[in-house]
Amino acid sequence: MKKCTVPSPWTPVESRIGRNDAVISVWGRRYEWKDSLFPMSISTAGREILSSPATLHAVFDGEEKPFEKTFFTVHCEDDEKAVFTVSQTAGDIIVNARFTVEFDGFIECVLSIVPFWGAKPTIDGLYIDIPLTKESSELYHLWPAGVSGICVDGQVISSGAVPDGGFSIPFRPYVWCGWEFGGLGVAMESEENIDLNDRSGMISLRDSGGGRLLRYTLLDRTPIAWEGRADSWGDALEPIDYVIGLHPTPVKPMYKDRLGAHILHTDWTDKTDYLSADENGENLCVRLQKQGVNWIIFHEGWSSVQNYGQAVDEEKFSRTVYELHKCGIKVMAYFGYEYATTAPGWHENKYDYLIRNPYGHPTGGWQRLNQCQRDYMVCYAGGYASEMRDRVRYAMTHYHLDGIYTDGTYVPWECANPSHGCGYVSPDGVRHSTYPILAVRRHVKELYKLVHGLGGYIDTHQSSCLMAPTLSFADSFFNGESIQEKLKQDFLGFMNLPAYRTEYMGKNLGVFPQLLAYVDERMPIEKAASLSMIHDVMPRPWGEGLAAKLSPYWKELAGFGVSDAVWHPYWLDGPVKCLTENAYCSSYEKDGKLLCVISAFDVGISDVTLDIGGVKHAVPVTPFVPKLAEFDI
Q: FRET label pair with 579: which of 63, 98, 237, 590, CA 20 to 30 Å apart?
């Protein structure tokens, strides 16, 4: 029997590709082409999300001309992918669109615009229309929110409800439109070969025919590379390529026991004591076990070389992992986005490994570990990707780790380093950065196979970048750093509920999150929990003290059995109606009982009125502190 090479939880790709049509199914999704360059149907999360076929439009001397002569060429059909090319002609161009559909549902389209032999091209317009149903395009996510993906300042919001009338924006490498449980992500690595007189509206989302039209404008004039030239045998015009990724979400089934992951995030150094007994004869491992902690993440200080996976004190670190395992606590350790000047290959590898801006300079540069090393940002298009995987393999097998926590690894930070293929030079001679989405995707796909092959787990921190093509290969994500300061200044005005449902709930992606909260007097852990728990998400504690505060919630949720319960979110019709203004109630239903999660976002609220089956219940609450209440139904 042929062995399936598709990693869990996905299923093999099923494809049928004909002379002028194709039907491809992956886990949870189905795509159809018929006499078309782009899909005529995309279904995900149980619904069709296109209101009509996605189309490419070409304009010649100011007049749009139709595409004709559709022809499909099959290149590969196996468990992991289906690859085929769709070819058409219009005006004086040929269009070849090579599609690669992978097992996680990612569709890579390499769109080649080819001039007719011997012709002087007259094309002066090119755009892609993706018509979405209105109910499948209520929410949006953009990355990055601003002009750069590298720097976040704690005040970045990149998601929310689609505004009335839609929006029009310059190039973004990733745009997602959808609803709380699914949608469509569109990825492009750069603006290369995009020729526009005005780039401010390259991407737009507008109301159209009862739905919404997502448009990508690639040309509104003759391409500079072709302008004024005619094709000839000895001086041919080079085809113009665009690489576009389409990724319907969710990408995989949501992890069933997501609230059962009681993850504690903390530091570990050679001075950290997990092993000594206190006055009760218990060490820290035992105390954490009693609180309900079942996962622990050791942050970056565990490694003597930043991001290298070599423990400061190997013997003590191994003993700590052993003692935690005895208490039923699994261990992840930090791997991140930097390369240290103390790494053994620094001198030989720094140019290939590092992100370089268009001027050739590196980015980042924190000082770590007693200020004795500098750490610069890496690009996973370079050789560092392979070295990181080798170091992860070493750490998991040598220290018996149960998984890894990755910082920034799933984010395609902008890079212009030509040594590994990033960046491009525009016709005016200026070098520009690109966003290496496909290189990061290849890296994390291999990382996922490696870690899961060792029986492990991957959690990642991705700072407002909810990018399906990369996060598909994470088990969970840790989001919220990019909003911390604004969240403390204006808790609900800035982080509104539609934004939370888009970016911080995970249901639309199929990967479960935990909320990052920098706890202080303005943001106690309970306040963070009041926002996250009504969305079926827990905040992640840093240190033993915060774990103790979340412990009662962990235990009550586990005692009710929420992993086997039906979740009813506050914004949909369900068995509970919250009648108090500025208060919200989501609930879990199981075996004729309800566990209600109630949050009040007004200091004047002392009790919340719930309507359960026509019976009103007054539940005492503390504002900005979640309340759990159980009822029979």
A: 590
